[in-house]
Amino acid sequence: MLGIAVDESMVEAAAAALAVEAYRDGRNLISYVTKKLDYADDLEKNYKRLTEEADKLFARRADVEAQVRKDMMKRITKECDAWISRVRVIEQEVLELENEFKKGTKRTWRKRRILSRSTLSRRMANKCEELHSLWAEGRVETDVVVEKPPEPVRVINSPRTENKPSLHWAIEEIRGHLRDRNVKRIGLWGTLGIGKTTIMHNLNNDEEIANMFDIVISVSVSEDNSIEKLQRAILRRLKLNVEGNNDQSEVAWRISKELENKRYLFLLDEVSETLELHRVGIPEDEMDSKVVLASRYEHVCYDMEVDEFVNVKRLSDFDAWKMFREKVGRNINLPGVEEIARLVVNECAGLPLLIDRVARNFRKKDNINLWRDGLRSLRRWPDIKVQGMEEVLEFLKFCYDDLDDETQKICFLYSALYPEEYDIFVDYLLECWKARGFICDVVDFLEARDRGHSILSDLLDVSLLERSKKMKHVRMNKVIRNMALKISSDSKDSTFLVKAREGLQEPPTEEEWKGVSGISLMDNKLHSLPEAVDCEDLRTLLLQRNHELTLIPESFFQSMPKLQVLDLHGCGCRSLPSSISSLTSLTALYLNSCRDLMELPADMKALRKLEVLDIRGSGINYLPVQIGHLLQLRCLRISLSNSCIGSLIQGQSRFAQISQNIISRLRWLEELTIDVDPHNQWWDGVVKTITKEVATLTRLTSLSFCFPSVDCLKIFVTSSSLWKNFSFTFRFSVGYHECTSYQILEHFEYEISRCLKYADGEGVDHAIKKVLAEADAFELIRHKGISSISEFGIESINKMRGCLIEGCTDIEFIIDGTHATEPSLGCLEKMVIKNAPRLASIFAGPVHSGSLGRLTTLSIYKCPKLLMIFSCGVIQQLSELQHLRVEECHEIREIIMRVENSILEPGSLPKLKTLILIDLPKLRSIWVDNSLEWASLEGITVYMCQSLIRLPFGKSNASNLRYIKGQRMWWRMLEWEEDGTEGRLQSLCIFSQ
C-alpha cells in the first residue's frame, strides 16, 4: 500500500463505481471488486516487477546488439530485426507507465483515483508478462540474431558433362590448374552457345573442387559489367548485410574482409569487359584462392591477367550426335531417320546452342517426310528461315555487330569466300586483305602485316574465326560462314558468288558473274571458263586447285578492270591468256604449284600495281626477265631447280638472264623467298650471283633462302646489314638436305621467325656462329667435327628457343659446361635429339643456375650410348619441363639416376605432364621409389620396356594422373611397394596387345 488515508466515504464511492463497472461488464460484483482492490494494493509490487523485467529485457537487447555489431558484415535475420523493433516499442510503453506511476506518487490518491490505481497496476502486470516473453525470445545463443553462414557450395541445376568429352576435357583442364598453387586466375573463352556456362556450372557442382575451397561462389556478371550489381550478387551469396550503404569502396572492403583467411573460388560467368576485381572486393593474392572467368572474348582474359587459358572448342561429331539424339527423343528411332539425323547434326557445326534449338524443332517431326524436308530447309538456310536457326543467328550476329570498325567487318566477310572448315594460311589471308585495300593508308608490307594481325586477332577474339590445328592457319565454321554469306548478300561492297568445293565441272552462268565483288570457285573440277563475262565490279577471283582447268580463254580477263586478287595456284593451266594484261588493278597473283605453266606472259609489265607474285613450284624454274619490270613488287616467291640442267648444257639456259640484274631492280621488295634444290652442287655459282643481288636490296624485311654452302651465306651476312635488324625475319638453310621445312617448329604453339638449318657441315664456322647468335631456332644435321654445340660459343646459342640435332656422329654432349662461366641455353624451350650414336649425356660438367630453365619439351631418339638424361644438377633446373620422350636408347637404365641425384626434392619436375618411354630394353626405373610428388603428371606411355617392373607411384603421389598406356603383359609383371596402388591406377590403364 502507498500509505494513503482512506475514509469510509472514499470506500463507499469506490465501491459504487466498481459496482457500476461490474454491472456494465455483467460480472460477479464481489469477485470483481475484490480483484480490483487487489490490483490497487499490488501497484507498488507490480511497478517494482515492471522495472526489473524491463531491466532484464533491455540488458538482453544490449547483448543482441553487441552480437550484431560483432557480426556487422553478416545479414541480420528478419526475425531479429522484428524483435529489436518490438523491444523499442515496448520500451516506450514502459516509459509511459513509469511516468504515469511517478506522477501519481507526487500527490495524494483521492477516492476518485482508486480505479486509476487499480487499472495502472493491472496494466503493469500485463506489461510484465510481455517483457518476460520478449526476454525469452531474444536468446543470443540461437540463430535468431544472425543467419547461418553461407553453405560452401550452392548446387546449380545443369546438364552434366561426363558424357560429353568435348566439354568435360575443359573441366579436367581447369581442375588441373586449380591444383597448381602458382595459378591464381584461369580464363575460359569461346563463342556464344559453345557450352561455357555448362562448364562453369559443372565446376561449381564438382565435389573434388568443393573440397579444395572453403566456399565456391558462382556469379553471372551482368551485360553492363556493373560492379554494383556484381557486388549485390556476391553479398547475397555471402549473406552480408550492407543495407543502406551505397559506397562501392565500403562494400568492397566488407566483401574482402569476409573472404579474409578463407580459401575461396570465384566462378565469374559471362564477363564481357575487363573487371578490376579489387574494386569488387575480391582480394588479389589470397593464398590458395582462385578465380575462373568465362568470356566470349579472349582479350578479356588477357586484360584480366589470367595465368592459364582454356579455349572451349566445338563438340566433336560423337558428342554432337549424342546430344542431338538425347534431345530429339524417340522420333530418332523412326525407320530411315538416323541417316538423315546425322546429316542434320552436321549442319549444326558442333555448337551446343544450335544443336539444342534444332533438336527442339526436329523433336516434333514424327515421320521421315518431315525429316527430309527439315534437312533441305537447314541446307538452304540462311536463304530461308528455319525455326531455331534464326535465334542462333541473332546470337552470333551480335559478335559481328560488336566489332569495332568496318575494316574488321569487311575482313571477316571476305573470309567467307573460303570453304567451311577450310584451313586458311594466315600470311596469304593478310596479303589478300591488303591487296583488296582493306588495310589502307599503309605503304610498307611489314606494317600492313602487323595491322592485319591485329584485325585477325580481333576476329579470333570474338570467335568469328577459329585457330586451326595447323600452325599459322585459321578457319571458319559452317554456321558462322553461313551467317557471313547472309550478311554479305545484303552488302553493296561484299556481294559474293561462292561455289567452292561443290564438284562443279561447268562454270556458273554468265548472269551469276554479274554485279559481284568476290567469286570463289576453288576446289572444283572445272574444265573450262566462259569466253567473256561481265565482271565490272569483280575484285577477287579464287580458282585455285581446279586441276583440270588447262586452258583459260584469251579474252577471259578483258572485262575485269577492278580485279585485285587472282588465285590460280594448283590449276592445270599451261599458259596465261594475253588478256591478263587488262588487269591493271591486279595487286596479288598466285601461280604457285601450277606445274604445267612454263612461262609468264610477255606483257607482264602492264600489271604495274602488282605487289605479290608467287610462282613457287610452278613449271617456271628460272628467273623470268618479266619480273624485272614489276617495279612495285613487295613480295616475290620463286623456285630454282635443277630441272633445266639439260638446257644449260646445251647453252640455252635461261639463267643467263640473271646477269640482267633482275632482283636488284626490285627496289621496293620487302619479302623474298627463293627455294633452291639443294641436291646439286652446281647451284653454288648461280646462287652466289643471286645472293649478291639480294644483298643490295634496301627495304628487305624477310628472306627465306637456301644457301648451298657456307660461302654463299657469308656473301649475304657480310654484304647486308638489314638481317640483324630486330624486325627482320629469316629462314636460312645452309648445305644439302632433303627437307626444306623445319621440324623443330612443329613443336611450337607460336611462330618462330628466325631459323637456321645447317646440314653436312664440319667444325665451327664464323658465319654460322654469327647467324646462330641471332636465330631463335637451330637445326644441326649430319654435322661432324664437334663434340657439343657449346663449341659454337655459349653466347651464340643462348638466344635460341628451339634446337634439333640429327645424325651428328661426333656429338658426345649437348652442352659441355666444363669451361662455361654462365648459364647455358637459358632461353631454350624445345629440344629434339635424333640419331646421335656417341651421345652419352645431355649435360657434361657443372650446371650453372638458369641453364635449361625454360625447357618445356625434350625428345630423344636413337641414341645407343646414352646412359643418363638428368646428370647431377640438371634436374634441379628443369622447373618448366612438361614433356619428356625417350625412344630407342638401348643403354639407358634409369631415367633419373640415383647416383647422380642422391638428394632430390619431392617437388622436382613440378610441371612434367607427359612421359613417353619406348623401346628401352635395359630401363629398370624412372625413379627409385615413390618419394617424388609428380604434381602435374597427366599421362605416361610405356612400350617395349620389359625390364621396367616398377613405377614411381604410390597411394598418394601423381594425383593428377589420367592415363597409363602400355602392354597388358607388362602391366601384369609390375611390382608395387604399397598395397592399394595397383587398384588405384588400374582404372587409368589403356592397354594394347
Automatic annotation (TrEMBL):
List residues of the Disease resistance protein At4g27190-like leucine-rich repeats domain: 830-962
Q: A single Pfam family, by name? A: LRR_8
Q: Which InterPro entries match?
A: Apaf_helical, At4g27190-like_LRR, Leu-rich_rpt, LRR_dom_sf, NB-ARC, P-loop_NTPase, Plant_NBS-LRR, WHD_DRP
Q: Name one GO biological process term.
A: defense response
Q: Which residues form the NB-ARC domain?
A: 171-331
Q: Which residues form the Disease resistance protein winged helix domain?
A: 417-484
PANTHER family, alphabetized = NB-ARC DOMAIN-CONTAINING PROTEIN (PTHR33463:SF186), NB-ARC DOMAIN-CONTAINING PROTEIN-RELATED (PTHR33463)
What protein am I looking at?
A: Probable disease resistance protein At1g61300 isoform X1
- Gene for this protein? LOC116203780
